[in-house]
């Protein structure tokens, strides 16, 4: 979600360097501006960097702006990026094509700088509101991390990216040890507080922007680590276990005396495994970590 307009990422798509230069000069003081020169490059950029708004030229060689917009709107990863067409065509037919492709606005060249800035500001404000509503729909009400619904969507996106690029990603399944005993001894309100604290420290312990924490269900959490293999996942798992242990939450029903967790680790193989196979692998290893004494991880 956007925190303020100054940090918004604007992608300019135009095959004419002079047009990129003019738009960049208008926007650079207010936004983080990026530029590509073709529809194909625009699609690739949006799939990997997700700008907050795209300024799209209509006429470009290879894949034109309308085709690029349609492609972006068809993909779940890029569907919600607002696309504003900036074109030399001022006729109604051209404008209709842009609206039908999924554009949110249409500006004709030469663009008035004041008009451009106001349009961008309005669309970013709308996107911020939309992102906030989506965040509320995808957030676990108790722990404030992502919910199971968003986890399923995020994991699917990672698998698709892995299949396209051949990259790896890791899945960690984290379970609070002896949580039933904790609830039985301290009560469900204390159990809720425990879940909140554990969720908070899990989220704080994964540092990269793409790293993802969700409540999988009950006292179980899922952590997704993009572009990470088993070795990297082990480092993160070790940090998570230490961070939870160091919370020092007293737990008389645990042999450790404090709240701890167990983790099962699985890594994708370039998208060859199904998502269910990946989850099942992580779950089996979580069971192994618990069988072997808890407060540890299992990666094989």
H/E element order: EHEHEHEHEHHEHHEEHEHE
Quote the distance from N terminus to C terminus.
37 Å
- Taking pLDDT < 50 over at least 5 consecutive residues as the criterion, the unreliable ranges are 1-5
Query: What's the CATH topology name of the largest domain?
Result: Alpha-Beta Plaits
- What is the 3D form? elongated
Q: Could you say what the CATH architecture of the largest domain is?
A: 2-Layer Sandwich
> What number of domains?
2
The structural class is: alpha/beta
Question: For the record, what CATH class of the largest domain applies?
Answer: Alpha Beta
Q: By CATH's scheme, which homologous superfamily of the largest domain applies? A: Reverse transcriptase/Diguanylate cyclase domain
Helix content: 40-55%
Determine Rg (CA atoms, Å). 23 Å
Total count of strands: 10
**Major sheet description:** 5 strands, parallel
Report the β-strand fraction as a percent range: 15-25%
**Average pLDDT figure:** 93
**DSSP helix count?**
10
What this model shows, in words?
This protein is of the alpha/beta class. It folds into 2 domains: 5-138, Rossmann fold, CATH 3.40.50.2300; 148-298, Reverse transcriptase/Diguanylate cyclase domain (Alpha-Beta Plaits). 48% of the residues lie in helices and 18% in strands. It has a 5-stranded parallel sheet, with helices on both faces. It has a 5-stranded mixed sheet with strand order 7-8-6-9-10, sandwiched between helices. Strand 4, helix 4 (92-101) and strand 5 (105-108) form a beta-alpha-beta unit. Helix 2 (39-49) runs parallel beside helix 3 and helix 7 (179-186) crosses helix 8. Residues 1-5 have low confidence and may be disordered.
